[in-house]
Amino acid sequence: MSTPCTDAAVQARRQTTQVMLERLQTALTTAARDHTPVTVAALARTARVSRTFLYQNQQARALIEQVTRASRSHPAVSTSGSGSRAQPAWKERALNAEDALTQAQREIRTQRTHIADLLGKIHDLEHDLPEGSLQRIVTENTTLKQHVRQLTQDNQQIQERLTSARQNNRFMDKRIADLEAQLAPYLTIPTPRP
Question: Which intervals of the chain form a coiled coil (predicted)?
């Protein structure tokens, strides 16, 4: 049991598939006329369809097999030898370059849009600040940086003093121990006689 929505969706999909098959047929006819080798990548690019469509659609596979069989049974007569093989390779490279150029231009447009958005946000943030606030913030930031530098220097000086005090303390402990050792014989208490 189908609904009007599903019927419309199925009909739209059939029409889209039919349009893609017609584009594929045109691409195959052009490839046969130009004696261009039939590859899935080239067909997908020329017919503006996905490779998945060419692999999964039975009618598309049948069209490709038909043209492939026809080209095998009627090989093209080459008048220029290797020149005819070089031409399809050149066309393939040109198509690849066009695709890469289109993709690069699309990426550049995306990046430019993103940069413009970020610059707009920065501009909005700058306008949200009252007049003179930016200078005040920069001044406060500079003052805070100087304060941090001063605190870092003070901390370093205190660490050096603490290290010196610990060394002095160890030296004094050792000196006291030496003096106690020297005084030990004189501090013996004689035991009383009964």
Answer: 141-182
